[in-house]
Amino acid sequence: MQPRFIRPNFSNDRCARFMTKVIRCSVSLACLALGLCGLAKPEVVNDGPDAFPRAVEDVYAQLQQVGLDEQRVYKVRNLSFDRAAFHISLDDGTLAFTRDILGKVTGAFFQGDGEVLLLPPNQVERASMSLFTGAAILEEHFSTAYFRFNDDSYAELRAALTPADDAPEFVSEFDQPAKNLASTDALRWLLSLSRELPGETQKPGRAGENSDRMLHARIQGNKLGNFDIYYDSTINEQVWAGQLKTVDSGSYYNVWTSFSVTKRSARTFSESEECQVRRQIGGVYTQPGSGRQSTLASR
Description:
Layout: E1 5-7, H1 21-35, H2 51-65, E2 68-83, E3 86-98, E4 107-118, H3 123-133, E5 138-149, H4 153-158, E6 162-163, H5 167-182, H6 186-193, E7 214-221, E8 225-232, E9 239-247, E10 250-259, H7 263-266, H8 271-280, E11 293-296
Parallel strand pairs: 1-10, 2-11
Antiparallel strand pairs: 2-3, 2-6, 3-4, 4-5, 5-7, 7-8, 8-9, 9-10
Helix pairs in contact: 1-6, 2-6
């Protein structure tokens, strides 16, 4: 069932109101994707007038149903990476990357023991997070996660991994779930790849440069169930987290928090800052394990 409404972020006003900014963003992406068909230049199209639209359609179809690559299945232990205000740890498990599209790996599926930590930047956002999750910061252990990214995450993560012995069995079990989740970010990824399609004047490095970075994690939390965390450098509120909820009146998407990343908040939170936030909400700070490896810098 498709979600009918999107619930608002908690704010200072007490009246709930339906939020449309995510819907407007999706409409804008759709318009941009449709506009790609007008980018082809007749003088560089050699296979007839329909060649470029077919190329767009083919790539979009691949992005919607890309599965896992049996040659890219790895064991992972004590691996972590950051995006702006959230931190993801893959403590122990198996990580399989997707098959490449136009030479790019666009996602990964993890199964094992992991943890996500998201620190909202101010009192309003922490109140919003607490309203939906019961805690002012998001700190959740998870057993599975599906990641979609448009940068060089694969190359950087790959350097710290070792091949898994049970690759065929892992892909057999999780390939279809990965395909089912792929369509969510297909349109966003198409925009990043559009410069490399036939008929477009390609600008090397644009799809992965700092101005266009995206990471979407669909997480199966041990307590909170399925939820999303998202970082997109191209939108006004680059970080958000939320969850689809179905009740008798329909399906709703609860936005737990969404905020803009300033230069100060974009960097990785230090241990002292994390401790301060925990003191503010009455929590107990635990020193992270010294064996944890941080591979990716904050974007």
